[in-house]
């Protein structure tokens, strides 16, 4: 009988890595994820805390941007091998929103999808154009014979079951039919939404704004997603959200969201 082994992959919108580095390091020590995608660094390349993360046991690659955006990929005990920086098909797009690398045998695309507010307007148009570029690039990844994950802050509430108050948020860019349509079109390529695969229709959130104790009252949104290609989805064991991180003082408005996966050498137990 093969020994069961798992690997943990997580995504976390840190909402300012400089301000929240202590919380990040504490979570890394407690949760010990093998792969982490970070978003909204809000830091330049030079300000990224590579030394502190290395001391914590994580190699990193990153794409910073002053005050806004910024993405990074971390590997426990290894340095990610970068394969792409930024989505193709728009050389004028200089926003730091996509980073792709091989980490522990998995191709990981870490992304921070545009918010799109206010809508309608240029920011919403940019969001839809970015999603269409993501769709084109994802089509080159989904059918690879290797495990692939697209993870991050998608800034998409897929359905009304993924938000505490769909009526109150109806005009927000995260809920617009065009945005939901692009996300559904992406899934139709063959990607598995890991949280939904594990938890079915259960209410589960990854983001809680800072107003009116929404985190304490669990009035949230599900906008951080982990999408797995068929090869990787076959290895899915569990998925969840570390909501307790959001409830800490001076926390990000997102919580780490994760999956556990069987490693390539592990097999399912056979029934006797």
UniProtKB/TrEMBL annotation:
<protein>
    <submittedName>
        <fullName>Exodeoxyribonuclease III</fullName>
        <ecNumber>3.1.11.2</ecNumber>
    </submittedName>
</protein>
<dbReference type="InterPro" id="IPR005135">
    <property type="entry name" value="Endo/exonuclease/phosphatase"/>
</dbReference>
<keyword id="KW-0460">Magnesium</keyword>
<dbReference type="InterPro" id="IPR020847">
    <property type="entry name" value="AP_endonuclease_F1_BS"/>
</dbReference>
<dbReference type="Pfam" id="PF03372">
    <property type="entry name" value="Exo_endo_phos"/>
</dbReference>
<keyword id="KW-0479">Metal-binding</keyword>
<dbReference type="GO" id="GO:0008311">
    <property type="term" value="F:double-stranded DNA 3'-5' DNA exonuclease activity"/>
</dbReference>
<feature type="domain" description="Endonuclease/exonuclease/phosphatase">
    <location>
        <begin position="10"/>
        <end position="254"/>
    </location>
</feature>
<dbReference type="InterPro" id="IPR036691">
    <property type="entry name" value="Endo/exonu/phosph_ase_sf"/>
</dbReference>
<dbReference type="InterPro" id="IPR037493">
    <property type="entry name" value="ExoIII-like"/>
</dbReference>
<dbReference type="InterPro" id="IPR004808">
    <property type="entry name" value="AP_endonuc_1"/>
</dbReference>
<comment type="similarity">
    <text>Belongs to the DNA repair enzymes AP/ExoA family.</text>
</comment>
<keyword id="KW-0378">Hydrolase</keyword>
């Amino acid at each position: 009988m093969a020994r069961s082994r798992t690997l943990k992959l997580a995504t976390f919108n840190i909402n300012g890595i400089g301000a929240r580095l202590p919380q990040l390091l504490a979570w890394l020590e407690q949760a010990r994820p093998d792969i982490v995608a970070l978003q909204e660094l809000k830091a330049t390349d030079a300000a990224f805390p590579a030394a502190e993360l290395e001391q914590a046991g994580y190699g990193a690659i990153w794409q910073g941007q002053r005050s806004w955006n910024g993405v990074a990929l971390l590997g426990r005990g290894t340095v990610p091998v970068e394969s792409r920086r930024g989505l193709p098909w728009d050389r004028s797009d200089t926003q730091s929103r996509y980073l792709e690398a091989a980490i522990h045998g998995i191709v990981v695309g870490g992304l921070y999808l545009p918010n799109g507010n206010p809508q309608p307007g240029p920011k919403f148009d940019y969001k839809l154009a970015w999603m269409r570029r993501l769709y084109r690039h994802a089509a080159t990844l989904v059918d690879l014979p290797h495990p692939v994950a697209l993870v991050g802050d998608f800034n998409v509430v897929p359905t009304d079951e993924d938000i505490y108050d769909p009526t109150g948020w109806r005009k927000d860019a995260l809920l617009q039919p065009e945005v939901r349509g692009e996300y559904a079109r992406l899934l139709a390529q063959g990607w598995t939404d890991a949280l939904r695969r594990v938890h079915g229709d259960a209410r589960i959130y990854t983001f809680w704004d800072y107003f009116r104790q929404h985190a304490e009252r669990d009035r949230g949104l599900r906008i951080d997603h982990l999408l797995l290609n068929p090869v990787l989805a076959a290895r899915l064991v569990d998925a969840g959200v570390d909501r307790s991180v959001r409830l800490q003082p001076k926390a990000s408005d997102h919580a780490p969201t994760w999956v556990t996966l069987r490693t390539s050498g592990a097999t399912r137990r056979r029934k006797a």
